[in-house]
Amino acid sequence: MPYAISRYIGCSAALVIGLVPALAFAQQQAAAAPRLAQAPAPAVTADQTAEDGTAVVIVTGVTQTTSKKNATFSINTLSSEEIARLAPMSTADLLGNLPGIYAEGSTAGEAGNNITVRGLPVAGGFRYSPQLIDGLPAFEEPDTPFMNNDVLVRDDLMTETVEAVKGGPGGILYSNGLGATVNHITRTGGKELAGGYKIEYADYGFWRHDAFVSGPINANLTGAIGGFYRRSDGIRDTGYTADRGGQLRGNLVFTSDDRRTTARIDGHYLNDRTAFYQNLPISVPRISGSGTPSNPTVLNQDTIEPLGIDFAHGSVASPYNRRFTMLGEYGSREIDQADGLHPNFRMLTAKVSHEFNSGLRLSAGLRHTGGTNGFNSVFTGNDTATAANFLNARYQNDVISPAHGAALGCNLGNAKLIGYFNVPASGACSAFANISRKDFVKNYAKATGVAGHWRNDGSAVAPGAYMNFLIPFIARMDARSDILDLQAQKSFMAAGKHDLTFGVYGSRYRFDLNLQNSLLVGESANRGRLADLTAVDAAGRQVGPSLTYDGAILPGWGGHDSRFRGEGKAVYLLDHWETLQKRLRIDAGVRWQHLDANVVRRNRDTATDLTPANVVVGSSQDTTADNEIFFPAQARPLNKKFHALGWSIGANYAISKPLAVYALASSAFRMPGVGDLIDLASAGTQVVGGQPVEIDAVERIRQYEGGMRYQARGVGASVAVFYNKFSPRSAVNVYRDIESTQCGALGGVIQINSCPEVAQLYKRGVENFGAEVELSYRPGAIEGLELKGSFLAQQPKVHGADYTITQEDKTAQGVITGYHYVQVSEDGRRPRRLAKFMANFTPSYDLRAATGVPLTIYGQYQYTGSRFSEASDTNVTLLPSYHVINLGAQYEVSSRLTAQVHVANVGNDLTFTEGDPLFADLLSPDGTRNRGVARPLFGRTIRASLTYRF
């Protein structure tokens, strides 16, 4: 599409112009800044010194600033310099550089990705990894439907560091901190004026501007403001502007003269659009049968072929299916896929703390997040076929079958019956009574097939073209979250120093979701087209109504309209104890949390005929696509209360100045998510045998961990060994008790429906043993060389998924003779999409010492082991392992200007991060292979940037 350069320049300039007043004001104050009285910087102790001589401190998971080496729990950090070198394209892409976190290659795009932590199940988005901004959640629920946390959290030049806490006090100090709690720490004003501007370009029509200004305003007040604006054609070829928008954020920090009182105000505005990329059609060599746990279907990357859409940069989205029409209770509306994921949010935060003469310190943090989000994306069905086969299937399934059913039921007003078949003027019901399908078609059919025409130019669909169903997911959300965190801290001496923190946490949040689906008829090709379908006679002339409406065979079906209201309360206590001359540090804490949830869900399951009154049903001016539009139906309410208790105790002992060991035991929990409760409202109360079955919806994890950290000049090492036992919310299995005396029999055969039902609660939990290792080395013999790496080795296994089903006993002729029990167990199987081994190696070399050239070259090698596509059924497909190599260089043009080139996926390695299980009966269009769908990595991309700092 034409590139709107004027609007792009205008938006980019607006970001820079917005920073000018702050820059000018800060420059006016800069001259006065040196004359201001400054408090002395806190002393850096020896055990806080890293290999480069600077203090490595953390603020997440602790109540007092602590060095990373001395933490009693697992903590990983990324500095702003490391973030710049990694050049991540998304939040998930960034977090995938932390050991223990699998980010699925960031294959959904810049937002809406999935991550998982230490073998926890891939249950969607950021479910077990809440994202904080400066210690408070961006939104109370990290995994709302169609609005993952990474939709709200975007790093830019205003991000100073990112810290990730896994387990331990993360589950005490923060809400939903079951897996990894990630804190994105924002830059604030310092003693001196500072600022930066970065312009970035990528070879897929990507332009981005980042900027910030920070510094002192007066003796007690500092400020910072910055953000980004980005525009992109899309890392996959959508044929239109896929990504556009950005964010602006800033803060003011007040510190009293005596440093006992601080106050901070933050404002954050996000308005962005990003494309959401989904699975693509694939084909693989013919398989003889579907996989099993003992004999999975193993995919070989070299034998996987695309079905019409390029793996590297192709997309289901295209300019020809960008816009389409949906029908519903609102009438009609045009959908624009270019809106993509569209968050429009404002976040306001206020923090204040005061230390009294007694040593008591009170602090409060208040955050309001509110706005709207849109989700617009088209998913591909697993139906790719040649047009000849696809259209024949439409004739059989969408013309003959419904018309034949209407004829047998004497539904003589059915549009497909009267439009595609000759209905006798009299005695039709008698003529159609018990008529076979074959005779019905032979004696009454007017239509002999279905034809397709491409909507963009009206040309006929060629028989060999690839066709497929496309499934739009269109969601509109209104969300609000209000969070208050109050803390009281007091230090006292008792066999060492204790820093005791008591906290009260409260949240009120709401989430309104309107979700609707559609079913489009599309082309499986790069820049695929939509097609309109008509029934035709032997001469190719249209018979009766169209089968589609603007390319949709179902313009409005599925989904729901839901309203969620939640109110949470929590209290927590954490004691940080330092003893034995500060060589031993112990953190012990407990958290109790309560949730009061109210949900109203209305499923779209009421079929409504929207045929206009002025249209003759069954005529060529009619369309059968509007005969079944699903409206929201009866409201299904849910009002429930939940509560849980968690605890953590960890210790760190400094054996020597560079070496420390630590151990941790914790029990954490996650309150039911918004999506869980909306689904529970749909299911309603499970009643078996007249008695309600109570489902435990709180998820829990028990974690044990031990490790060591070694930090000396030039060498750093961190080793952690862990065991997790995860318990999800209950699942209900209902089976018939065939041994009950209540069972009736007929002809000696049990009538199974007369047997009483038995409700069996089970939990598809996960047990995981694993080890994480982080290493860094700067050899003294080669100045400028730095080697960094990490790896995760784990053995996640399903546990607790044992349940009973009843199975029929049949003769060879299919006659049922009885029933027997089958005990099903998934225990011992690896959960879906989890690798046993992952590694990340990032070497860099600064050539300045050896050549005098201020050039740093760097690389990255990421390896992810094979994963199962599914583990909860008897069909198992093993996705291949893969690796990605990234290379780059940073050149210091001057002390303030840096140029960078970054090449991602240098080898253009193509593989899949997720995919549906393969089934033997799903064949490729030519019938020689099997087909499926999977989401591939992005192909090679090149990015270049210039960064100016002052």
UniProtKB/TrEMBL annotation:
PROSITE patterns on file: TONB_DEPENDENT_REC_3
Gene3D superfamilies hit by this protein: TonB-dependent receptor, beta-barrel domain, TonB-dependent receptor, plug domain
Compartments it resides in: Cell outer membrane
Domain TonB-dependent receptor-like beta-barrel stretches: 449-906
Membrane topology qualifier: Multi-pass membrane protein
Top-level taxon of origin: Bacteria
Pfam family, one: TonB_dep_Rec_b-barrel
InterPro entries: Beta-barrel_TonB, Beta-barrel_TonB_sf, Plug_dom, Plug_dom_sf, TonB-dep_rcpt-like
Signal peptide: 1-26
Alphabetic keyword roster: Cell outer membrane, Ion transport, Iron, Iron transport, Membrane, Receptor, Signal, TonB box, Transmembrane, Transmembrane beta strand, Transport
Domain TonB-dependent receptor plug residues, every copy: 68-177
Annotated family: Belongs to the TonB-dependent receptor family.
Protein name per Swiss-Prot or TrEMBL: TonB-dependent receptor
Organism: Massilia niabensis
